[in-house]
Amino acid sequence: MSAAAILILAAGASSRMRGGDKIMEEIAGAPLLTVLTTRALAAGSEVFVALPSADHPRAAALSGLDVTIVPVPDAAEGMARSIACGVAALPVDTSGVMLLPADMPELSQADLTAILRAFAGGMARHVVRGAATDGTAGHPVVFPARCFDDLSALHGDQGARSILNAETDILTVALPAQHALTDLDTPEEWAAWRAKQ
């Protein structure tokens, strides 16, 4: 089996940004999608990026990066469609998939590497989930290949929560501070986060 792949979930509508696009907000001098994808690539895995279409404006943020764009034409149905399309695009011998929401600016290359190492160290059997330093579970989450059929059958906008709730074999990895929990959905949340940087 090949190593776990990373699936960046970037097909959402950013509806709470009131006309803005949270995934294209600038951090560290580049769009968030560019920065997060670069960090994912540096973690050493094959990277797939779910977008509403291959020619979506967000695709410009991936120019020159060695990633596979996964079109999600029915992305409006919810995050489950992005997950299902992403899983369908994976090589058949992939040992697992990291689901990485594209709106989490604090996740670092080191964080992603730590999660992937924990997955590999567990012989690709466990679900591995990032957590805050106080143990609160968050993202990213790596699902082993045994979960691929369930991931492909998801519906709606709850992501993989139902699978996580039913899973008994979850290994959590504490990441620094609030890295595993910080997702920014509104202009106010972005402004508050930037004020702390």
Topology readout:
Elements: E1 5-9, E2 26-27, E3 30-31, H1 32-42, E4 47-51, E5 68-71, H2 79-89, E6 96-101, H3 109-121, E7 127-131, E8 137-144, H4 148-152, H5 161-166, E9 170-174, H6 187-196
Parallel strand pairs: 1-4, 1-6, 4-5, 7-9
Antiparallel strand pairs: 2-3, 6-8, 7-8
Helix pairs in contact: 1-3
Helical content, roughly? 25-40%
Structural class, by secondary structure, is alpha/beta
Query: For the largest beta sheet, what order do the strands appear in spatially?
Result: 5-4-1-6-8-7-9
What number is the mean pLDDT?
91
Poorly predicted runs are none
C-alpha Rg, in Å? 15 Å
End-to-end CA span: 40 Å
Strand content: 15-25%
Number of contiguous helices: 6
Multimeric state of these chains? single chain
| Total strand segments | 9
Shape: globular
| Strand and helix order | EEEHEEHEHEEHHEH
Largest sheet: 7 strands, mixed
Describe the 3D structure:
This protein has 6 helices and 9 strands. Helix 1 crosses helix 3 (109-121). By secondary structure, the protein is of the alpha/beta class. A 7-stranded mixed sheet has the order 5-4-1-6-8-7-9, with helices on both faces. A two-stranded antiparallel sheet has the order 2-3. It is globular, with a radius of gyration of 15 Å. It has helices spanning 32-42, 79-89, 109-121, 148-152, 161-166, 187-196, and strands at residues 5-9, 26-27, 30-31, 47-51, 68-71, 96-101, 127-131, 137-144, 170-174.
Give a short summary of the structure.
The protein has helices at 32-42, 79-89, 109-121, 148-152, 161-166, 187-196, and strands spanning 5-9, 26-27, 30-31, 47-51, 68-71, 96-101, 127-131, 137-144, 170-174.
